[in-house]
Specification:
- Helices cover 27% and strands 32% of the residues.
- It has nine helices and 15 strands.
- It is globular, with a radius of gyration of 21 Å.
């Protein structure tokens, strides 16, 4: 079935209003996109991340009355002659299949490969993580995930316990287990992430060494030799007391999900408890690592 897409070019101040309007008009989904194609990353609960120039995109079933849709848009108190919008028909595609066809095996560091579960393993002798992210975040395609995977590949994880804070698909925890870690703990705020991590752990035959917790249910006195958190700069700063306490004395910390221009503020938050390494940068994203005092 084809779809009808309505795209409104507006500002961050007005985007929420237009989002509400499109939802009320019957849109099956509403998304925000930077006018200059800057990607959106997962916000905190109750938080919406927008830009100065924002496209609000509503997706409708093909039988929507587009004339009525335009009239509704023009009835908005924010509608002006300068407001730009576009209505177009999208071709019918199997979007899940399209995404799967473009997710290829990827190598990180010297030993590690991330392989979609539906594709053949390119190197049977490598450390292969078979991944199906499902509805959770984390495939290895984003520079921040790549930075974390490369860091883990370069560590001696033998007999180590690792915590993946904000585990998403479980990609980092499972990679650590396949790289020799004794045990891993995945923590997330989203039950769907824990389910995706659980499924991927079973797919990789490491479920007996992976424990999963919602953030609100973390056990007391939980400690790890290595803690990795690939989330966002704001949450990393806010969660510093909760993340730092999870790292053993002389344990290692790896943080990502941070833009290069945000690195100084994140370093400042963790500097009191960690001897930090030089910041590693990849495509304007960065990774912060260090050892706990």
């Amino acid at each position: 079935m084809p779809w009808i897409q309505l795209k409104i070019n507006t500002t961050n101040d007005n985007a929420e209003h237009f989002s509400d309007l499109l939802e009320e008009s019957g849109a099956v989904s509403v998304t925000f996109q930077d006018t200059y194609d800057t990607p959106v990353f997962e916000p905190l609960p109750g938080e919406t991340r927008l830009w100065g120039n924002t496209d609000v995109i509503g997706l409708y079933e093909a039988d929507i009355d587009t004339k009525q849709l335009v009239n509704l848009l023009k009835s908005s108190k924010l509608f002006t002659n300068e407001l730009h919008y576009k209505i177009e028909q999208l071709e019918d595609k199997d979007w899940e299949r399209e995404w799967m066809d473009n997710f290829h095996p990827m190598q990180f560091g010297n030993r590690l490969w991330i392989c979609p579960s539906w594709r053949e393993i390119p190197d049977p002798n490598a450390v292969n993580v078979m991944l199906d992210p499902g509805l959770a975040f984390g495939t290895g395609t984003h520079p921040t995930t790549a930075l974390c995977l490369q860091w883990l590949d370069g560590l001696d994880l033998q007999d180590k316990v690792i915590i993946d804070y904000g585990c998403g698909s479980g990609i980092l925890a499972i990679a650590a287990l396949k790289l020799g870690a004794k045990a891993a703990i995945g923590i997330d705020i989203d039950p769907q992430a824990l389910q995706a991590s659980r499924d991927n752990a079973q797919r990789n035959n490491v479920s007996d060494r992976l424990s999963l917790y919602l953030a609100k249910d973390i056990p007391d006195n939980l400690l790890a030799d290595v803690v990795v958190a690939n989330i966002l700069a704001g949450p990393l700063r806010e969660l510093e007391p909760h993340i730092s306490v999870l790292v053993k004395s002389e344990g290692l910390l790896g943080l990502s999900g941070i833009l290069e221009n945000q690195s100084a503020s994140v370093c400042d938050a963790y500097q009191p408890h960690f001897e930090l390494d030089p910041v590693m940068i990849k495509e304007e994203w960065c990774r912060i690592t260090g050892k706990k005092y």
